[in-house]
Write a structure and sequence with these properties.
This protein has eleven helices and nine strands. The strands form four sheets. A three-stranded antiparallel sheet has the order 3-4-9. A two-stranded antiparallel sheet has the order 1-2. With about 400 residues, the protein is an alpha+beta fold.
Amino acid sequence: MASRDHPNYPPLLPRAVLQQPLRPFPHVLRQELTQQLQRRPCEITRAFLATVNLNLLFGSPAEEQRLVHTRLRGLSPRALTQLAQACTAALRQWRTTSGRPVARQEGVIITRSAHTRQLALERDSQMCVLTREPRPEVAHIIAYSLGRHAGALDQTMPNVMAFLEMFAGPGVVNNINNYLMRPTACGESQINRVENLLCLAPGIHHLFGSGIFVLEPVGDPLSTLRDNREVLTSYQVRFSWLTENRPSVENPERQDSWDLEQLLDPGIPMSEEDDPIISMTHIIRNILQHPHGPRLPRRLRIEPVETGFIFTLSTSDPVRHPLPHPDLLVLHAAVMRVVRAAGMSLVQEDPEWDSPEGSDVSDTVTSVDMNYSLDRFLRDNGEGPEPPV
């Protein structure tokens, strides 16, 4: 497997999380936090409920898991509510579609890169990788909005930092900082690197950014890299629809039926037939034909894309046109499962990354703007001002 020094594909996630379903925190911990909530009583958010029950922390080193669990146990109900609201803000920022922002604070603002955009288009043959439609958009796997300011997440995106530490562990946060957020010699982040880009048709781009479907590597493509000189020329990807969660038990006393004074029951996924978005959405993939072969009838030139559909990402020039980093697809899929379980799939629109030059773009403002890292939440211990309603 590639080492941490590989120029294109350093491992970003613990290998134990690959091909594994997301897992909840230990039952005892969720029970203790539930008791904390009910003593006050106070409510958390669906984003926090989903994160506690669906996360990648189980793959982190044991000491990282103990650290996060111990920190959470030290939270007062008030601080727990603040952290829950920060998770909501983080997921809003994560699912924002890529855009060209204007400055709102001091620091380097990363604008779109026409160079890397063109490299992605060349790599993907000017087609959507999923549907093979022409004239695609260039989409970021890890949202462009997260790397608009160069620098570590604890300084540029503290809500995302707090969420990711709890969701995947401090080690993963450090890896993402080094791979995508760390300033280059020019003072820019690396959010626009080709390994973070995919060509998707406009409608497909929207569904991908909303978490309606995910693309996940089959197996561990990095396991084929024996040293830092080897490159990826292709790997398989699996398509999956993601359905929204519904309450496990309907509660006639609550209008939305969600019990947000507990962390034991995150609800259950709907079926694809019951999901209001997926049941009305159909994706078709064009089958490429040999230019000199016989022209097939339309019914033989398309195929439906459904959960479990597998296709191949490939590049003819892995040095100039490297493939997307498989671990970024895994991380995106994991976070989008939380987004869907939390009922937050409506994308916060930011103008498209490849919008015309000179467009005046306003930053998206979330309803919660708390400059806390997870450490700050735990040090605060609920003694600060009341969390916003």
